[in-house]
Here is the input.
Amino acid sequence: MSLAGFGGVLVFARRGIVEQHRWMTADEFNETFALCHFLPGPNIVNLSVVFGARFRGLAGGVAAFAGLVGPPVVIVTILAVLYAHFGQVDALRRILAGVSCAAVGLLISVVFRMMMPLVKRRDLVALTVMIAVFIAIGLVRWPLPAVLLVAIPASLAITMVVRRRAAS
Amino acid sequence: MNDSGNPILTLALTFGVMSLFAVGGANSAIPEMHRVAVDVHHWLTDKQFADVFAIAQLSPGPNVLIVTLIGYAVAGVGGALVATLSMCVPTAVLAFYVSRFLRQRSHSRWPAIIQAALVPLSIGLMGASGLILALTSDRTWAAALVTAGAAILASTTRLNPLWLLLAGGLLGFAGVLG
Here is the structure.
């Protein structure tokens, strides 16, 4: 499964876990994914560990982790060796430059897709938080830990206040 | 690589800490990786950073692999392994314990609130990733057009992303991007 996921493993993970093997129901999968989404770090790696651990405890978690990360790491390390040797070859430089242009476009499209629900709900609070983080990290280039140590508590507090008002 | 001290140790510390702040996944931490690898430690040049991102996107597997490539550039195979494990293990352990904790206490409203609070943060971070990578990769108008085209095609069609990456590579090979 780890090798199938060009540009992200999630779709394949879902297909395998929910549809083929029926190891989890769709709801369980969504719940686990949501959990891994708000935890820091690579989502899909977290997902694999939580998923493996649910079946076989610690050993399951370690096995799922090794299965997911191991093969791609071997491949990428080989690519890294090749890049170290041939990275200066002009044709390869041009190809990689083109690929990275396209890859940036893909990333931007993901950002837009994630942003649309907030825009549609006219969720001004969330959009303000989003833009503030974008400016602090992308334009001012402050270090990530410093920004998040302020932004996470602030965003939590704002969210709670907004929900309490909505409820009352 | 003229850092004082052991580069492997620096890698482990850097990515171990970074992983705990990568809200929304590895792509959220790209600005921080760029800041640390290019601006602070001078492990990579801007161009190399863009190349490494391209290779990570071309490779099968989770997109955390960009860390493996940075690690290799710093300290060879050992660096690659250490960087990857430091980026994955701390949060995997955290995920393991949090999921156990949450299963014992179901119906809590905390997960929903935390998620609602973190989603805008992670979108902002990924937007910043997009900006920084665009600044490092799009040196010419033609290159910026390729990025814009890929963004529009990926947003409006269900085209497999791999085709867009290959098309970008072909345009680059043809020398269109200057």
User: Anything to note?
Assistant: Chain B touches chain A through 108 residues (CB under 8 Å). The two ends of chain B are 30 Å apart (CA to CA).
